[in-house]
Amino acid sequence: MRSARPGRLHLGDRVRFEERTYTVVGLTGMRVRLADIHGTGMLIDQVHLQTAEDFAVLGAGERAALGSAALLDHLSEKVAERALWWQRRLIEILTGLPPDAPVGAGPRPEYDPACRSLAERERAKAAELAALGEEISARTVKRKRQRYEAGGVAAVVDHRLAPHASLLGRADPRVVAAMRQVIAESFPASTRTIEYARWRTGRILAAEHGEDVVEMPSRATFYRLFAKLSGGVHVTGSASTRRSLADQPEGPFRYEQVAAPGELMQIDSTPLDVLVRLDEGVPGRVELCGLVDVATRTIAAAVVRPTTKSVDASLLLARALTPEPMRRAGRTR
User: Fold this and answer.
1) Vertex 218: Cα angle to 213 and 222 (nearest 5)
2) H or E stretch including 310?
3) Residue 221 above 70 pLDDT?
4) What are the residues facing 187 on neighbouring strands?
5) Is the pLDDT of residue 268 over 90?
6) Which of 38, 84, 217, 311 is the most exposed place for a label (fewest CB within 10 A)?
7) CB 236 within 8 A of CB 226
8) Can you tell me the distance from the alpha carbon of 298 to that of 229, in angstroms, rounded to the nearest whole number?
9) Whether the Cβ atoms of residue 289 and residue 268 lie closer than 8 Å to each other
10) Residue 319's pLDDT is what?
11) How far is CA 126 from CA 95, 116, 130, in A?
12) What is the pTM (predicted TM-score) of this model?
C-alpha cells in the first residue's frame, strides 16, 4: 500500500476514501470522479480527497482500461477502431502519457499536466491532429474529453457511423413485407379490422412461402408492428380519410432555396367559408385557387370557382403571364 499524498492521480487508480474502495474514472481540472464496484460514482475535489485521513492509493490501474473495449464488440471494425483511436489521444490529454507509454517515460512538454492547463493540452492535441490531416478543432477535442470522462470509450463512439437499431426490432422481414402488402391493399377497399389484417398476413405468407413455413408473431407483437407500419394511414379508420391521404401528392423532399422571382411557383386552393350566388342563381360555396411566387411571397394570380379543376391551373398561368392592360383589352372585346 502506498500513499498518494501529495502525488498525482491517474485514470484507473484504485484508491481508499472514507473506508471504501473506488476507481478513478475521470479527472477534470482539480476534481476527481470516483466509482465504486457497484458503479456508483461521485465527483470530489482532489485536495479534499488526498487530505482525507484514510486516503491511500491501493494500486495503479491500467490507463487504457477506462471504458471497456468489450462495449465496442457490437460495432463495426471501422467504428470501434475510431473510438479506440480517440481513447489513446484523450488519455494523453488527461494524464500526459499515452496508454502504451513505456515504464518511466515522461510526458511531452505540451501535454505535461504539471506545466500545461487542460485547455492548453486540448489545443495542443487539436494542433497535432491538424498537422496529421485531421480537421478537428480544440472545441471538438474538449467535447470528446468530457464525454470520455463521463462514460469511457463507449461515449466517444461516432454514432453517425454506428448501425442504428431498426424501429421494427427483430421482426421477420417476410412478415413485415406481408403486412406492408395488406396495408397497401386497404387503400381502395372498405375498412377492415386489425384481426382481418392479421388473418390476411397469414394467408399471404402461406401463399408465398408455404403453410407454416414462416412463423406468425404473437397477437400482441403483431399489433405493435401493425401500429408502427400503418401509422397515419387509417387502415382501420375512416375509408374516405384513408383514400384522401393516399391520393394526395408527395411533399417536397426538402425545402427549396429560391432567390429570383418566378423561379418556383406553387398552386394551392382552399374552400371559402361563405355563401355566394352562382351563375344558376342558386347559393353555394366556392374555392379560392391561387398561384404564389415562393421567392417574393406574392400572389401572381387567383381565381374563384365553385370547384377547382385542372383547367384552372392553366387559367392561373395565363393570367400570371399576361400583363394587366392586355387582360382588360381582352375583356372589352
Assistant:
1) 95
2) helix 310-321
3) yes
4) none
5) no
6) 38
7) no
8) 40
9) yes
10) 83
11) 16, 15, 6
12) 0.37
